[in-house]
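Re-run requested by the PI after the first attempt was lost when the workstation crashed. Everything re-entered from the original request form. Ligand of interest: zinc ion.
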Amino acid sequence: MSSAKGAPEQSVRSECDLPTAHGTFRLRVFADAGGEHVALSLGSPETTPEPLVRVHSECLTGEVLGSLRCDCGAQLEAAMAAIAAEGTGILIYLRQEGRGIGLTEKIRAYALQDQGLDTVEANHRLGFDADQRDYGPAVRILEQLGVHRIRLMTNNPAKLRALSAAGVEIASRKAIVADPQAHNRSYLETKRDRMGHLMDWVDGTEEGGA
Ligand SMILES: [Zn+2]
């Protein structure tokens, strides 16, 4: 397959069934020069009009270690639960830790945050943009899976714009709701106030917003 922007060919390298707490998904590994990524599919999204899709970026601390500095673990769980509730959908898991800056730099940014910087200021101090993520692999995975028009589960307008600009038709957006906790409230507020994330529920004005 030829891809936009001269990206290297990306194809399914391996696949299996993956039983999870949310049901049995089909797991496919995709790889390109940027690394290995995963698509978890449930049901038949390729024949479903506007299937629910979550494009989720890796967060080792939040998802594996249970860190409360962010809401990634809760968002991942909520996304899998929402797809399971519909019986059809795709979770694309991109291996771009720390909004694309990698684990070492993410932990450096955390250390700067411990000194009082917020997540955006910390990234800038380290010489990065607030968000370095590349959604190109997700676009190519959707192409490979034969899915062109989706309902995207996200609070992040930049992600909506990036996927849409790359040719993915976004029929609608579904909010993803994770409960703010004492440790990550300021992080969530920064995402809302400084990165434009759509999450009025952080201040409790829209409990369980849809
Ligand atoms: Zn995280």
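Saved to the shared folder this time. The first strand starts at residue 11 and ends at 20.
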